[in-house]
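Entry 14. Structure prediction run on the chain below.
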Amino acid sequence: MTKRGLVVGRFQPFHFGHMKFIEWVANDINYLIIGIGSSQESHTLNNPFSASERRDMIKKSLGTKIRYEIVEIPDVNDDSRWISHVEDICPAFDLVYTNGEKEKRLFSNRGYSVKSTPFFNKKQYSGTEIRNRMIDNRHWMDLVPQGTIDVLESIDGAGRVRRLYESYTYRD
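Output returned:
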């Protein structure tokens, strides 16, 4: 039987922790559905990159190493409807991979098998840490795959994050 797995993340930006997580999951299944969560969000301090930019980061970083497809999952802000929302958007899946307690509960209650995964240096490989390094003009490129670097350089991603931070800071 083909096992199809689902992972959902914001990928703001896609980093080595995400890559290791996806590679770990890919060893357990035949096909992976990667959900870009909060896909409607962009150009904010916590979600600076658009869904299409995040899609490009993932595709350029993963290449053809694994069998996958990417779907965009906008927020519905309603736990009682979220799983139905994901099911409507995504192709069929058998397994869900997450370490989020709420997500584990919601998918399990709907009858899905849910698996936890190891954390891959969560403190270092964190979108928040990477964005903070961009704001402070500290080195961040060693935390992300080359595909992410290529996308971020093409859109001046680090500059965007700094500008968003400055506009947010000066609103006070």
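The longest helix spans residues 157-169.
Filed with the rest of this week's runs.
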